[in-house]
Amino acid sequence: MTARPDPLALELLVAVAATGSVGAAARTVGMAQPNATRSLARLERQLGLDLVVRSTRGSTLTDAGAVLVDQARQALAAMDAVTDSAATLRGDSTRPLPVAASQTIAEHLLPRWLSTLRSQQPNSAVAVHVHNSHDVVDDVRSGRTALGFVEEPTVPGDLHSTVVAHDEMVLVVAPHHVWAGRSRAVRADELARTALITREPGSGTRMALDEALDQQVRPHLELPSNAAVRVSVASGAAPAVLSRLAVADALSAGTLVTVPLGLQLRRPLRAVWTGSRRLSGLAADLVSIARDEGEISSSQ
User: Which of 162, 203, 211, 219 has CB 3.0 to 4.6 Å from 132, enough for a Cys bridge?
Assistant: First the structure.
């Protein structure tokens, strides 16, 4: 049986995905870069997979690394939950703020928001749990987390919410797909008839697409993460509709290309919570940062 990965190595892998650099990832986790390089190399040997591609322009994840980083986030969140529970049992007053976020937000926006929060409040502590949007709502409802960030087109009426940013969804295919280079836009009815690679039911991406088409999509394949969808699309299996945030690196690298759409797929990203309508404390500060940075991105 393969030995369990070192949690610090998993944390480094997640940090490489967020920062695009082994050096920056090492600084994020408080480790010297040579030690971080050795830790990642040891993780690759242990798993028998190449996870990180290093170049003079930085570091990116391989397809295998992109798939495994989602599971690494979940494993780290589970370990954080054990730590949080122990703190509660001890009666510690410094329990981190529990926050749940859907995958696209957790991968591409939340790390920057948390970095800004930490720079403003160095002693702040946040425990992040990553799920699809449906499960984030469940976490908030149950009280397991104090705050959630979701991609759902609508929010249940029993939750308070505020829009913090907007996200564009795009149709992508492999460069050798028959739709690559197509100039005529794919209409909604044609997209609805096409078997797509999709995220699982309950994900914000899937719900937003179902709502935009006014019907459930026809899945060629359902996968539990953006990374898994990207890898499958790049193989030429079928098209997919994903957040532009989730495919930006693949578009830059040329492993995926966009296809024009005859409908606009722009969705709001929201913070959700229960209890008092007015947020306070660290949760209010994090939502304010998310909203401010969302406005900056929209104006660029």
Answer: 203
